[in-house]
Amino acid sequence: MTDVLEHALIERLAAGLPRSALQLNALHESDAELLRLPGTGMVLAVTTDGLAEELATGLYRDPELIGWMLVTVNASDLAAVGAEPLGIVLCETLPPDVDPSWIVGLQAGVRAGSAATGLAVLGGDTNMSPTTNLTATALGLIRDGRPLTRCGCAPGDVLFASGSLGLGSAFALLQLKPELKHAMPLAYRPAARLCEGRLLRGYASCCMDTSDGAIATLDELMRRNAVGFRLETDVTAWTCEPAVTLARAVGLSPWVMHAGPHGEFELLFAIPAGREPAFLAHARRIGWEPLRLGRATREPGAQLVLDGHPATVDTGRVRNLFAEAHGDIERYIGLLVREVSLP
Amino acid sequence: MTDVLEHALIERLAAGLPRSALQLNALHESDAELLRLPGTGMVLAVTTDGLAEELATGLYRDPELIGWMLVTVNASDLAAVGAEPLGIVLCETLPPDVDPSWIVGLQAGVRAGSAATGLAVLGGDTNMSPTTNLTATALGLIRDGRPLTRCGCAPGDVLFASGSLGLGSAFALLQLKPELKHAMPLAYRPAARLCEGRLLRGYASCCMDTSDGAIATLDELMRRNAVGFRLETDVTAWTCEPAVTLARAVGLSPWVMHAGPHGEFELLFAIPAGREPAFLAHARRIGWEPLRLGRATREPGAQLVLDGHPATVDTGRVRNLFAEAHGDIERYIGLLVREVSLP
Lengths: 343, 343
Known about the structure:
- 2 copies of one chain form a homodimer.
- By secondary structure, chain A is an alpha+beta fold.
- Chain A contains 13 helices and 13 strands.
- Chain A has helices spanning 5-14, 52-56, 63-81, 100-117, 167-176, 178-181, 194-200, 214-225, 235-238, 241-249, 276-285, 315-324, 329-337, and strands at residues 33-36, 43-50, 84-94, 121-128, 133-142, 158-161, 206-209, 228-231, 267-271, 291-297, 302-306, 309-313, 340-341.
- Chain A is globular and about 55 Å long.
- The mean pLDDT of chain A is 92.
- At the A-B interface, α1, β2, α2, β3 and α4 of A face α1, β2, α2, β3 and α4 of B.
């Protein structure tokens, strides 16, 4: 498989750091860090995530969206390990001349995100510096000590998404194409799938959120489990409607809406075939309709169905293209389109 | 008492945020957030702290010091609540063209800080953005569920420091006065007082670290406990030797070395008079010699002894001067010197 550029940096940063004997997961194995709580059978989940790139590139401008996302990106990692939300701490670096109305908007977004996820704001740190930087750390609890991770999927397991995908890329593309923006209003305020994650702990063999887009998520799950994925449902059927419409408007295949590094915070997960009926019945009882995408395979690689035709995607290469294009979005899309092969 | 400008911002940021029923402390009441762990008698301590200002102003330049401080500032908050270290997560925002040798230095500092504190690095988040921003969140455990906080001090309690103070200001002043720097090499690599904090849980009525300087710490402890402090030991006796020397070299009274907003991560704490002998005996058994500073008083305000003469300091006003001087260090020192009144 193609090496992932981001992994190389993370592995370099982590090299030589002492690890805790209490930690259950190794690098890349779960969306949140998992720590056995001494003297109990419980596991603490902790995750930290910042919004640096989204702010520096102007992808997020509305302060309410920024506050919402600061909570949601972290809550989504707790969802992917099936944790019960405990609380969140915020680290806000603000310019000394920050507009007070911007702070009001930010806090309204944080408050809404906190209420939606049950992650009470426990405290934080405030710093002054010319460049805005917002990070948060969320804590969750897994009382029975059995978290979901990215690892455990076997060939034959059934691949699902918690909901339709592609909204993250659609939102990002619209910010970059202002001429399309007023023709196509799009509400981007993704919700962390916390209830669904907790339900999944009883059924799923692996789980990961689509914070980096569905292709990156599929790629990571394949790497962690040494499996491939054969998607049997046509891409348009699991792509959200605004993403399909937008892709058509700019003359792209809808699969491209899953390739970008900005996702929608749904969950991708696999269910062993024998547990599928019980899982679906349980999901139905909470009013949730997961999307069945396909199956894990012994053969490596990702196969999609595009307008009725099978196609393969080098998911590792797709993950690296954004870095390779050095932020040039036209070049990036040009590179992307060449990456799908129709046999 | 003079209102603290920083409190006003923090209270504005926290306004209207839902709080957790599990949280033991309110705003400003402890150095780390304290959360009851459901189904256990234990308390989880969590604290988040970033290095934005220290990096933006150039106060910290050596990447090894930066990595060390990223761990230490958070570990020190765990020390001040008497927690046992569990682990730390890092959120690193780095410029795309960051020098690889800078990263090597940073990670060496993080590794050394992690080894010194027992805070294993559990994981983190890495972002790319033009401005470097480093934040971390540390977790600790208080197994018996009885943390130290800033609250609980009564008039008559004996005030101590875990060690001599003033190194943080001395270091900051030297960075700003390069002409003095080569004449006076100063090693600034403060250690979090984790062992001392755990010992203090059995004795202290309040505790706080000197991350913002001793005057700010005294001020905060007075506010939380509605007491004053009468320091009976001359300032020079509890000021570290390099800070005394530096103050004399620039013609300032040594008390000024406790006024700056950059501290040395010692602990200030009070011991009820009846527990003092047992506390001192226990401290001696671990080879620790805390410095006895004075007593909490019913009368508000801070009294110092400067070169044998009593003096009062408006600690609240001193905390605000750095913001009032808008970073102009000469103006700041000028304002400071006027703040101490010799009767």
